[in-house]
Amino acid sequence: MPSIEHLLTVAQAASRLGITRRGVLQAISRNAIAAQKLPTRTGAYLIEPEEVERYNALRQRPESAVS
Fold first, then answer.
1. pLDDT at residue 28, rounded to an integer
2. What is the pTM of this model?
């Protein structure tokens, strides 16, 4: 079984991105951030650190560059 210790929680991703947990969850729901949903009662998400970096880079692009 692969280790999940390097994965980030929604709260950790929010902290790295400088946005709220709700903002991260909204990005996950619109498939802007890829996340793995845990099969537990809470249904928490885990996110690859590289995915957070990718999303942050996308957010930093000027609006005119996004088409």
1. 98
2. 0.82
